[in-house]
Structure formats: structure tokens, C-alpha cells
TrEMBL record:
It comes from Acanthopleuribacter pedis. It comes from the Bacteria. This is EAL domain-containing protein. Residues 23-276 form the EAL domain.
Length: 278
């Protein structure tokens, strides 16, 4: 397959050839990144809307590349998904996240940790077993773990998968529908998927203070979620006015640069020391 791939480059323009080579090199580097300890998690606080108390945080992956500096996930997650590298990387993220949340719990910070799970990871045969063994190894109570899944997933659900989801949910772990409102099957998704949380995609928040239509959509999403007994998180809160709006609409939780950017663990420790209240 490698030979065929190499020959295929002849048909590309020089610019595309370069892009393909760059991609190959990036893939090799990503493959080694875990062994080299270049992957890191940042944590972004999630706060209660009505009182600004920290209730949880989202783990966000960063790649500290030796020459490219810090590579944001937007630049390598899709490569990791296409190559299957997301399976070991995703498991690493889950394990690190659970161990870190356990440490915070031991320090008296009762937080939930939200972990992004890619569709490909989720569809692995042993997904449920991986989650269960990471929870028991780390000693993190399942109630403290939230798995964020994007909407596109539902198109490929199988009975086995739904069964696994129910088993995990029965243990107390929560699923969150990430980027809600951007997929094209949002509502039917909510009918079948046993999610306890819903996360409103940040593009809906951006103009919410100036655009009546966006405001109406956000309000409707929140009240819909509440009717379904789901907790709502708004992402991408950047201004006080957005926060005020979310308070008005009874949004449960929020996260965004207005409160904090994603932080490396030592800075998150400091943030917790300042902002965590029982
Ligand atoms: P996401 O799950 O929607 O994560 C939220 C993204 O919004 C993060 O970008 C975060 O830094 C950014 N963000 C948070 N608050 C604000 C704000 O107020 N304003 C703006 N402009 N942005 C804000 P990030 O860290 O670059 O991650 C991008 C995406 O990469 C994530 O989107 C998620 O889909 C994916 N990702 C990150 N970590 C992982 C991971 O461990 N596994 C998987 N499968 N995907 C991941
Ligand atoms: Ca997310
Ligand atoms: Ca998003």
C-alpha cells in the first residue's frame, strides 16, 4: 500500500505533493508523540451559571511539538481519526483525565471531568470495557465522569452500542451531546441517545446578545433540554452580557474565555484554589 501511495504522488501537482509529504511526516510524528511524552491535557473550568462556582472542567488535548510549538487539536484530531491513532490517544486522554479528576477529588474539589470521545473511539468493540477499567484503575466515581459525544455519531448506532451505553449510564456515568444544534439530526438524536447533558455549540452564543433569532434558538434549546431532564452547558462565553443572558434563560452551566481559557494543570490548580466554593 505504501508503494502505491508513493507512486500516486506522481499524479499530484508539486504543491499537493508537498502537502501529502507534510501530512505523512506529521502522521509519523503524531505516532511517536505519545511515547515521547509530547501530548498534554489542558483543562477548562465549567461553572454554575447562577453563582460562578466551578462544577467541572473539560479536558482538551494539546500536542507540544518540539518545533511546531503547541499544536491545537483542530490541526491533528482529524488526522488521528483517519489513521486510527485516535484509539490509543483517546484512551490516554481518558486515563489521564480520570486520574487527574481523582487527584482533585482527593484535594477536596468535587468536580466532574468532561472528556471528548471521537466517534471512531466510541465504535470500538471494547469501548465499554476500556471505560470501566479506567474508572476502576483510577478510582474515579462514575458520577464524576462525563463523556462528550458529537451528534454525527447517531447515524451509525448499533444495538450492541446502545446496550453498552445503557450499561455505562446505569453505573452513573453521564453522556453529553457536544456541539448541539450543528448536526442535522439534533432532535431525533435526543430521542434515542441516553444523554444527561447537552452542550450548546459556541457559534449560537456568539451573537446572542444582538440577534433575536439566536437568542430565541438558545432559549428554546435550553427549555427543550430541561423538559427532557437534561442539564445544559453553554460553551464559548466571552462576555458579561452573554453570561447575563444565560442567567435569564436558566442555563445550568457555562464555560468560556470570559471565565478562563483552557489551562495546564498547575494553573488549573491555582484557579480552583481561587474559585472553588462548596
Ligand atoms: P470542543 O469539544 O467544542 O471544545 C471546545 C473548544 O472551544 C476548545 O477548543 C476550547 O478551547 C474552545 N473554547 C472554549 N471557550 C471558548 C471561548 O470563549 N471562545 C472561543 N473562541 N473558544 C473557546 P480546542 O481546545 O482547540 O479544541 C477544539 C476541538 O478539538 C474540540 O472542540 C474537540 O472537538 C476536539 N478535541 C479537543 N480535545 C480532544 C480530545 O481529547 N479528544 C477528541 N476526540 N477531540 C478533542
Ligand atoms: Ca467538547
Ligand atoms: Ca464546540
Amino acid at each position: 500500500a505504501k508503494e502505491a501511495g508513493r507512486n500516486a504522488f506522481r499524479f499530484f501537482t508539486p504543491a499537493m505533493n508537498l502537502a501529502a509529504q507534510d501530512r505523512l511526516r506529521l502522521e509519523g510524528e503524531l505516532r511517536r508523540s505519545m511515547d515521547l511524552g509530547e501530548l498534554m491535557l489542558y483543562f477548562q473550568p465549567i461553572l454554575a451559571t447562577n453563582e460562578r462556582r466551578v462544577v467541572g472542567c473539560e479536558a482538551l488535548l494539546r500536542w507540544c511539538h518540539p518545533t511546531r510549538n503547541i499544536v491545537p487539536p483542530g490541526q491533528f484530531i482529524s488526522l488521528a481519526e483517519e489513521t486510527g491513532l485516535i484509539i490509543p490517544i483517546g484512551e490516554w486522554v481518558l486515563r489521564q483525565s480520570c486520574y487527574q479528576a481523582r487527584r482533585w477529588l482527593d484535594q477536596g474539589y468535587d468536580l466532574h471531568i468532561s472528556v471528548n470521545i471521537s466517534t471512531r473511539q466510541f465504535r470500538e468493540q471494547d469501548f465499554r470495557q476500556v471505560v470501566e477499567s479506567v474508572l476502576s484503575e483510577s478510582g474515579l466515581p462514575p458520577q464524576s465522569l462525563v463523556l462528550e459525544i458529537t451528534e454525527s455519531l447517531v447515524l451509525e448506532e448499533t444495538e450492541q452500542l446502545m446496550e453498552d451505553l445503557k450499561l455505562l449510564t446505569a453505573k452513573g456515568l453521564r453522556f453529553s451531546v457536544d456541539d448541539f444544534g450543528t448536526g442535522y439530526s439534533s432532535l431525533s438524536y435526543l430521542r434515542r441517545f441516553p444523554a444527561k447533558m447537552l452542550k450548546i455549540e459556541r457559534s449560537f452564543l456568539q451573537e446572542v446578545v444582538h440577534r433575536r433569532d439566536d437568542a430565541a434558538l438558545v432559549e428554546a434549546m435550553i427549555s427543550l433540554a430541561h423538559k427532557l431532564n437534561m442539564t445544559v452547558v453553554a460553551e464559548g462565553v466571552e462576555t458579561l452580557a452573554q453570561w447575563d443572558f444565560l442567567k435569564e434563560c436558566d442555563c445550568d452551566f457555562m464555560q468560556g474565555f470570559y471565565f478562563s481559557r483552557p489551562l495546564p494543570v498547575t494553573q488549573m490548580d491555582a484557579f480552583l484554589a481561587d474559585h472553588f466554593k462548596e
